[in-house]
Structure formats: C-alpha cells, structure tokens
Design a protein that fits this description.
The chain is mainly beta. The protein is built from one helix and eight strands, in the order αββββββββ. The protein starts with 12 loop residues before the first helix and ends with a strand.
Length: 139
Amino acid sequence: MIAMHAPAMRLSPLALAVIGATACAAFDGPSLPPCVGGTTVSVTPVAQPVFAWTPDCRVDRIVVTNVLAPSLGVAMGQPQWAAATLTAVRGTVAPITYGHAPLGMATTYGPTSLNRRQQYEVLISVRGVVVGNALFFIP
C-alpha cells in the first residue's frame, strides 16, 4: 500500500499577519467611525423592539430602561436589558433587536419582559458617553 501525503503549506509571518488582520476586520464588521453626539435613534415598537440609528456609526453599549413616573421620586428607570461590546471589538452597528446581543457584543443585564403600555428609553453610548436615545412604548 502506498501512502500519499498532501504537501505541507508554509506561510510566512507576514502572510499570517495579513490573514489575521483580515479575519479580525470581518468579525469586527464594516469600517465605520464611532457615533458622536446628535445620533438619531429610532425604534420599531414591537414585542421585541428593533433599534437603529443614523448616521451609520458604531456604538459600544446599548441600555434599555423603563421610564418611571416622576411621582415615584426615582430619578432613573430600572435597566431592562443592556449589552456591551467585547474588548477586541471596535463597536457594533445598527440594527439591534431587544434581548439579542449582536456578534461582538455580550448581554450584561437581562433581558426582562417588556410590558404593554409601559414607556421605555433606549440609550446608545460610546466610551461611556451617551450619544443618542429614544423613548418608546410597547403597543
């Protein structure tokens, strides 16, 4: 019996670096800048809302909170869901569906069930600075 072996393929360190950079860019998504203040956030108000923003840019955190009545004496609502990018990722792009952290992000809180006729707020941020927000209801 004759054994046949495929020839070994050797890659130079430069080729490995190019392949690694390309793979990271593909995982990291399109080359877009981080969002800055004035980013407009939109919400598709369904049972699992979908969040989008313009212009096309990257965020590294998304938080959804409930909005409480001022009479309750609480300054901020309670988190319902939050997701943040992983350290090796430059941020993520829209759209994002409630409760589903996209590739490159991880859920850091929740998700909890959203209630009908309750008001919520979504906040998107970059490096700890809120760059956009929107209020919404679940019909």
